[in-house]
Specification:
InterPro entries: CT_A_B (IPR003778), Cyclophilin-like_dom_sf (IPR029000), PxpC (IPR052708). The chain has helices at about 40-50, 190-200, 270-275, and strands at about 5-10, 15-20, 55-60, 65-70, 70-80, 85, 90, 95-100, 105, 115-120, 150, 175-180, 200-205, 210-215, 230, 235-240, 245-250, 255, 260-265, 280-285. With about 290 residues, the protein is mainly beta. The strands form four sheets. A seven-stranded mixed β-barrel has the order 12-19-16-17-14-13-20.
């Protein structure tokens, strides 16, 4: 057996394998999936010399602990957190060498929600439909990590970046989401559309990789009944019967019957992935392009 493996010593509350996901399979009912904070995942890959599509680990809130059987270079980014190697403090947001047998510990996030751990060579679990991403909705890809999981690594693709540290945006104190109204904003009263775009919401603790759920003013329907199921896109703001908007993230269903009042700009979704429960959310309307 190759010694190019990682052993999961502490899996944390939710750690998954993620890459750029499975675009192009929505017609088969397969979500895109992939890293929620794609810029952070791409950056840690770049820091260790991996191509941008190499698979990384996405941690949630309390990090993870890993042991490599051979010397590897790692980089931890996304949500800021303490990092240690062999019990000694190590850099966050920069390439770090982890000697064979030493423990890499990624601690709890000090801000934000999701951290990313890239390892030189990438995580090389078996791909499904061209991706190694864990999809929590469909169950495709590897299962969420558990203590004792062994992850294969590929050969290093290139040298690590020569930087002391790479700037990364801090998780937002207030989440501002630019939205284009529609396609079903006419299913809501004028007051509901005004509430969505002028009043404050907060991130709900029920949020997950499927969607960012909100707490705040319930949006009143102008029409009774339900829509036939129709296609859903990344960033769709769907309104279930309780009237509280849900922003669809990477593992969202590909169809749905609740009306979509607006769609969030893709560029704003990485910040949504890092917004912890209680974060203030504002939906800001922009013109259709």
């Amino acid at each position: 057996m190759s010694d190019r493996v990682l052993v999961v010593v502490r899996a944390g509350v939710l750690t998954t394998v993620q890459d750029q996901g499975r675009p192009g399979y929505a017609h088969l009912g397969v979500p895109r999936s992939g890293a929620l904070d794609r810029p952070a995942a791409a950056l840690v890959n770049r820091l260790v010399g991996n191509p941008p599509d190499a698979a990384v680990l996405e941690t949630t809130l309390n990090g993870c602990a890993l042991r490599a059987r051979s010397t590897v270079t790692v980089a931890v980014g996304g949500a800021p957190s303490p990092v240690s190697v062999g019990g000694r403090p190590a850099a966050w947001g920069a390439p770090v060498v982890v000697p064979a047998g030493e423990l890499l510990e990624v601690g709890a996030a000090t801000a934000g929600v999701r951290g990313y751990v890239a390892v030189s060579g990438g995580i090389t679990v078996e791909p499904v439909l061209g991706s190694r991403a864990t999809d929590l909705l469909s169950g495709l890809g590897p299962a969420p990590l558990t203590d004792g999981t062994v992850l294969p690594l590929g050969p290093p693709a290139g040298p690590p970046a020569r930087v002391d540290g790479a700037p990364q945006p801090r998780p937002p104190a207030e989440l501002v989401l630019r939205v284009t109204l529609g396609p079903r904003d006419d299913w809501f009263t004028a007051g509901a559309v005004r509430d969505l775009t002028t009043r404050a919401y907060r991130v709900s603790s029920a949020s997950n990789r499927i969607g960012l759920r909100t707490e705040g003013p319930a949006l009143e329907r102008a029409r009774p009944g339900e829509l036939p199921s129709e296609g859903m896109v990344l960033g769709a703001v769907q309104v279930p019967p309780d009237g509280r908007p849900v922003v669809f993230l990477a593992d969202h269903p590909t169809t749905g019957g609740y009306p979509v009042i607006a769609v969030v700009r893709t560029a704003d979704l990485p910040a949504a992935a890092q917004a912890p429960p209680g974060t203030l959310v504002r939906f800001v309307p922009v013109r259709r392009r």
